[in-house]
Structure prediction request, 235 residues.
Amino acid sequence: MQIVYLLTFGLLSIAFVLIFIRLILGPTLPDRVVALELLATVAVAMTGMYAIFVDRSSFIDVAIVAALTAFLGAIGFARFLERGGPRDD
Amino acid sequence: MIEVVIDWIIAILMLSSGLFTLLAAVGILRLPDLLTRMHASTKAGALGVALMMTAAMLHFNDLVVMAKALAVIMFIFITAPIAAHAIGRAGYFVGVPIWVKTVKDELFNRYEPDTHRLRSGLETPEELAALKPSKDKPRIRVSSKK
Prediction:
């Protein structure tokens, strides 16, 4: 079972690194917002993974809060882009 | 016996969650423009979270944790399309370049960028005269590189 935990952590970490590359590259601001949102989603998955790993169910609450914050951030960025943001990145 | 089976199911769920998340990350890194990237990230990412939360449900085997994990799944499944819609809409208005090989852009030349008004193509001539004439230059800049 331990090897499965480590393998899943490894996969999620590689996903983190790849999304970070897109976050840095991302030619326009909406690309970066999408990368940030996926980063938060991966963070939620990783929190669930960690809850299983340390066998403490309280971390699921952290996952709920992280998902909520990610959604609010994405909506806020979208409003900002549409209403008042710079038209060019 | 049953514990072993549940452990196997948890292992399969966790590994597939990691694989789907990695797939979303590869998609967001490799795909050519904003809309295709969103198409990769929202669906595969939401499925990754859902599989991980299902694994947590099976692992803890507790009613409270099940309710919380189910809440996370419901929340992700409801909010991921909304957020993707908002970002895609904002990206279209900002004028993010789309891929060269994009087949169709149905909003092209029908959207008033300032008033956010969509023409259906079935307006009477009076209604068309009331609207501003549409611009000839494309609003969406087509990216030059592949």
